[in-house]
Structure formats: C-alpha cells, structure tokens
Q: What sequence folds into this?
C-alpha cells in the first residue's frame, strides 16, 4: 500500500510551483501552467515528464463527489486482529482490494492494527460490507465510526521546501 523506502526527489522552486498547480487542477493546459509559473512550455513539459519518470507524479485522476453519486455514509473502520502471519495479511489485502467501497486502508502502530475508510450509500450498505468482510477474513475486533461531517478533505500533499 505504500511505496518502498527511497530518497526524496530534489525539487526546485519551479518544480514546486508546477506541482502545486497540478494538485489544484491537473487538467490545466500546458500553456496555462507555463504562464502561471513564468516559464516557457518546453521546460515545463520536460519537468512534468521528469517528475512522472521519478514517480513524484504517480497518475492523474478525476475526483468525484460522493454525495452526487448517492454515497452519503463514510465509515472509519478500526480493525484488531490476533493473526499477523504473511498468509493472513495477504488474504486481508486481497479482500480489501476487491472491495471498491474501501477507499483507504492503513496498517497502524499501536492498539489498532488497521484503519479503513469505507464510503457507502448508508448504514445498511455498510452492514453488507461488514458481513461480507468478516465471512471472508477472520478478525478479532471491528469498530466502525460514522463520520458525521467532513471538515477537511484534500488530495493535495504539502510540498516540502527545497
């Protein structure tokens, strides 16, 4: 779920400006990006290409509105397990990957082993997800927390200074 350890890519101020714009709107035309960062098209294109090759820019996607799609319930699911062997972990990961309602999954340090972000239509849809998951994977304890209000959500990462 996470990238392997590697050295951070060195970015200069122009790279950071380009990345900032792309995080706001990746559909901006190259000419617009170049104008906004005060450079010409070719160097901007070369920098974007280099950052893609380096893995700084992983992919470009469309961000959808969950409520517009009728997905009105967001649950944070806390999972504890007594099983920590490689086989269980592989089956758990496979189960998560086949469930599109799981939009984030993290392995944690501390009392909770995993946290999932699950987006569904309603509580009944969450229960179907839950029943399906526990029928496939043995889990010691599951706690589901319903988000009452999304107060901040962004896909933009903080870009460290040079």
A:
């Amino acid at each position: 779920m996470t990238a392997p350890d590697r050295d951070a890519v060195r970015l200069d101020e122009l790279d950071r400006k380009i990345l900032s714009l792309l995080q706001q709107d990746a559909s901006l035309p190259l000419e617009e990006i170049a104008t906004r960062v005060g450079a010409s098209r070719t160097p901007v294109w070369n920098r974007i290409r280099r950052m893609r090759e380096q893995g700084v820019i992983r992919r470009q996607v469309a961000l959808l509105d969950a409520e517009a799609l009728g997905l009105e319930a967001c649950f944070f699911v806390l999972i504890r397990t007594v099983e920590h062997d490689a086989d269980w972990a592989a089956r758990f990961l496979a189960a998560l990957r086949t469930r599109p309602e799981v939009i984030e999954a993290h392995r944690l340090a501390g009392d909770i082993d995993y946290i999932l972000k699950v987006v569904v239509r309603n509580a009944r849809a969450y229960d179907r997800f839950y029943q399906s998951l526990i029928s496939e994977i043995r889990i010691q304890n599951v706690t589901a927390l319903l988000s009452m209000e999304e107060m901040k959500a962004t896909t933009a990462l903080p870009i460290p200074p040079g």
